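Apologies for my clumsy wording, but are you able to produce some protein sequence, whichever is easiest, and the tokens describing how it folds?
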Amino acid sequence: MQSSTLKPMNLQILQNKVLRLTVMPELGASIVGLELYHQGFWLPLMRPTAPATLVGRLSTDTSSYLLAPYSNRIRDGRFGFAGKIYQLRPNWVDGQQTLHGEVHARGWASQRLEENTLHCGFDSRNFQDVNFPFPFAVEMQYSLYQDGVQIYTALQNVGPQPMPAGLGHHPYFMRHLNRSSDALLSFRAQRVYLTDATRIPTRPPEAIPLSLDFSRPRPIGLSLLDHVFTGWDGLLSLEWPGLGWRMDLRADPLFSHLVVFTAPDGSVALEPVTHATDGFNRMAQGWSDTGVRVLEPGERMEGTVRMTFAPPPTSSIEP
């Protein structure tokens, strides 16, 4: 029998007695597993990544991946900036959409700084086919603590001209653990973008309707969500009442927007992002508070997202 010629996968595992984080640097430095040790078993907190996903390099089917140098969709892959129009190639499976940036399917350099810290880096100048007109570099550092995970991210303009920029994280969390009831979600924001059939906003954000109000913990239920909230205070909680564990996520102010997406596989994506969907075009049209940053040559934007896990002191279920 002929021996396999497949290159071994570079899976980096950060683990302690409570949590196990697995990262694949050669696939966008994406998270391919985040698990909780509970009653003798490792339970997935994020949706598990199938082996076929790793072999097929299907980065958007991982547990969590990075969005950079922009988040979410760009309408028709075209945006205006500084008096010029830029056309990007479609990069989605439908052959039409341009979304989620350029780094999640790329190979990253990685270095283990210590037992539970992993540093990853990406430089677009090392790739000839990057689908973005401005050169940029990205750093991510994963740190595992006894009670949680911290992700530091930095995006830098390494070109000679100003560039529009944004980033975000796209983690998919499990809604049901150990056959428990639906997770309870809570967060506070000021407004929400309502979108058309392309899931791109056509008007500025507006007041959050009751159907999208998660200011108090409640189950997602049968709601189909794919919404961008702005004026987010950087905090959210996800509690699994049947399991007795809770996640508290805290993001730096850089992440002023939150995307909530109920995925077809039954997980929920809770995405800290820096700007609105189609933010480059919204900014060009004069919308305020899009969250898009313009980075001067050499300038960088950076921020941290931290997830902590603990049994809740009391149940948050509404009477």
Summary: Residues 171 and 270 are 6 Å apart (CA to CA).
